[in-house]
Amino acid sequence: MTPDERAEFAAEIAAAIRIRSTDTGLSEEEQRWVRLAIQVEGQKLEFRKTVIEKTLLSLIWAGMVGLGYIVLGWATNHGYKP
Question: Is 80 helix (H, G, I), strand (E, B) or coil?
Answer without folding.
Answer: coil
